[in-house]
């Protein structure tokens, strides 16, 4: 019989998690995704603007723009749920970069959704969510312009993107721009502590510090790194985090900077060679170097000069010159800057 050959239903199927993941650890980024705008951490100005919209209704067309993992998709989804409640299923059209969003989709799918009749309480509108909108072609964006105006009585648009300048100006002018920025270390730590308590994660304080360092203001990365370290080692310590995240160890890079500052150029170079031999790419090294120098306690003049040189080297690496020679040249420049500064004093 057809029904008896079906696999038994999963014992528990958490919301929005595909059935093939049941029995495995649910990704914590999903498990702990805030469902209310008020629960989104950080970016207080942006979040309070959205909270006012959630409270008063009448959502304007919105563009949420900012770096990855800061809560843009989360905020839009939460806002749509708060505004529309049970009508969400019918009254929200969500399209992201994994959907085809060429000009035909705008002409057909989005337009048809905008024309569709859905009975909603007074003051509520249907919502079209265009996530990762910066990957839409400009042709598709152009096609949106008039649709956004014609159906503004019944349908509102919420766009999320990383780089707002990739949204064409006419669309920007039709939307209220809400900017998100990277989350602060305290904000990430606060959220991590909630997850650590809920999941009973064993940790050392320097482990959480390492997670915050590697995440660099990206909450998604922080939660993913926490989960990866926890499931790999069952203990979140600095050492384990750097094993999982596979970034150059900040202490190693810090020693390199210290050697440069103490005039030990050869030691600094051999530190760099070790990192290079471990397989880290020049981009990994220079990104960590930048963050270490930014937070290193040294004279301001030196720090600014160091950062300037790191910036130039980063540019050359991005242009394709990512060799050990390039990074050694950077160390030589930093040493020279330090010598000049010393001579002036
Ligand atoms: N501000 C935040 N407060 C609480 N959790 C957050 C926040 N930002 C991100 N997260 C966590 O990270 C996950 C990913 O966040 P989200 O999808 O909102 O990022 P995004 O800003 O849309 O990033 P992208 O630009 O890559 O699409 C969420 O599921 C949530 O668990
Ligand atoms: Mg997103």
From TrEMBL:
<dbReference type="GO" id="GO:0006281">
    <property type="term" value="P:DNA repair"/>
</dbReference>
<dbReference type="GO" id="GO:0016887">
    <property type="term" value="F:ATP hydrolysis activity"/>
</dbReference>
<dbReference type="GO" id="GO:0005524">
    <property type="term" value="F:ATP binding"/>
</dbReference>
<keyword id="KW-0067">ATP-binding</keyword>
<comment type="subunit">
    <text>Heterotetramer of subunits RFC2, RFC3, RFC4 and RFC5 that can form a complex with RFC1.</text>
</comment>
<dbReference type="GO" id="GO:0005634">
    <property type="term" value="C:nucleus"/>
</dbReference>
<dbReference type="InterPro" id="IPR013748">
    <property type="entry name" value="Rep_factorC_C"/>
</dbReference>
<dbReference type="InterPro" id="IPR050238">
    <property type="entry name" value="DNA_Rep/Repair_Clamp_Loader"/>
</dbReference>
<dbReference type="GO" id="GO:0003677">
    <property type="term" value="F:DNA binding"/>
</dbReference>
<feature type="domain" description="AAA+ ATPase">
    <location>
        <begin position="58"/>
        <end position="190"/>
    </location>
</feature>
<comment type="function">
    <text>May be involved in DNA replication and thus regulate cell proliferation.</text>
</comment>
<dbReference type="Pfam" id="PF00004">
    <property type="entry name" value="AAA"/>
</dbReference>
<dbReference type="InterPro" id="IPR047854">
    <property type="entry name" value="RFC_lid"/>
</dbReference>
<dbReference type="InterPro" id="IPR008921">
    <property type="entry name" value="DNA_pol3_clamp-load_cplx_C"/>
</dbReference>
<comment type="similarity">
    <text>Belongs to the activator 1 small subunits family.</text>
</comment>
<dbReference type="Pfam" id="PF08542">
    <property type="entry name" value="Rep_fac_C"/>
</dbReference>
<dbReference type="GO" id="GO:0005663">
    <property type="term" value="C:DNA replication factor C complex"/>
</dbReference>
<dbReference type="InterPro" id="IPR003959">
    <property type="entry name" value="ATPase_AAA_core"/>
</dbReference>
<keyword id="KW-0235">DNA replication</keyword>
<keyword id="KW-0547">Nucleotide-binding</keyword>
<dbReference type="GO" id="GO:0006261">
    <property type="term" value="P:DNA-templated DNA replication"/>
</dbReference>
<dbReference type="InterPro" id="IPR027417">
    <property type="entry name" value="P-loop_NTPase"/>
</dbReference>
<dbReference type="InterPro" id="IPR003593">
    <property type="entry name" value="AAA+_ATPase"/>
</dbReference>
<keyword id="KW-0539">Nucleus</keyword>
<protein>
    <submittedName>
        <fullName>Replication factor C subunit 4</fullName>
    </submittedName>
</protein>
